[in-house]
TrEMBL record:
Protein's UniProt name: dTDP-4-dehydrorhamnose 3,5-epimerase
Complexes and interactors: Homodimer.
CDD domains from the UniProt entry: cupin_RmlC
Gene Ontology CC: cytosol
Gene3D superfamilies, per the entry: Jelly Rolls (2.60.120.10)
GO terms of molecular function: dTDP-4-dehydrorhamnose 3,5-epimerase activity
InterPro entries: RmlC-like, RmlC-like_jellyroll, RmlC_Cupin_sf
Role this protein plays: Catalyzes the epimerization of the C3' and C5'positions of dTDP-6-deoxy-D-xylo-4-hexulose, forming dTDP-6-deoxy-L-lyxo-4-hexulose.
Pathway the protein takes part in: Carbohydrate biosynthesis; dTDP-L-rhamnose biosynthesis
Similarity annotation: Belongs to the dTDP-4-dehydrorhamnose 3,5-epimerase family.
Keywords: Isomerase
Length: 179
């Protein structure tokens, strides 16, 4: 397993060790002991999965404390641009975002700690995204940031005419509205 730091503290890109042969491949997508050995001590309690088609943008979503979630995101099929926005008010990178291509080919994962908003855009014809969380969903603590908030200037790698965004996500406010 390879763990890469990002320009935003505590946000990690994880690449598992993949064993390939003529039959295909095998890898451990999650190993609690290996994570702990590498300083990642999180108790995941739920797995989520979504299916989306090209152009879908999901997010930017978050939950407020005490229901804030750490997420370990990976792609089972297809390719996405995964995006995390630092919303930790005391962080030196508050309001900054990081994006990474996650795909079934590169098998990379993004570990997004509590204190971040999260979203992704689908760049392949379809994508299946799986992620672990350390807190259950709580409707009353759910919040979000509009995907096209000009203060974030996120390039979702999709032409604006081809973006597919839920009605719920289209009415979200900007980062400033979280304050």
């Amino acid at each position: 397993m390879k763990i890469e730091n990002t320009p935003i503290e505590d946000l990690l890109v994880i690449t598992p060790k993949v064993f390939e042969d003529e039959r295909g491949y095998f890898f451990e997508s999650y190993n609690e002991a290996l994570f702990r050995e590498n300083g990642i001590d999180i108790k995941f309690i739920q797995d989520n999965q979504s299916f989306s088609k090209y152009g879908v943008i999901r997010g930017l979503h978050l939950q407020l404390p005490p229901f804030a979630q750490t997420k370990l995101v990976r792609v089972l099929q297809g390719e996405i641009l995964d995006v995390a926005v630092d919303i930790r008010k005391n962080s030196k990178t508050y309001g900054q975002h990081f994006s990474v291509l996650l795909s079934d080919e590169n098998k990379k994962q993004l570990l997004i700690p509590q204190g971040f908003a999260h979203g992704f855009s689908v760049l392949s014809p379809t994508a299946v995204v799986s992620y672990k969380v350390d807190q259950l969903y709580d409707k009353n603590s759910e919040r979000g940031i509009r995907f096209d908030d000009p203060s974030l200037n996120i390039d979702w790698k999709i032409d604006s005419k081809e973006c597919i965004v839920s009605a719920k996500d289209q009415i979200l406010g900007g980062l400033k509205d979280l304050e």
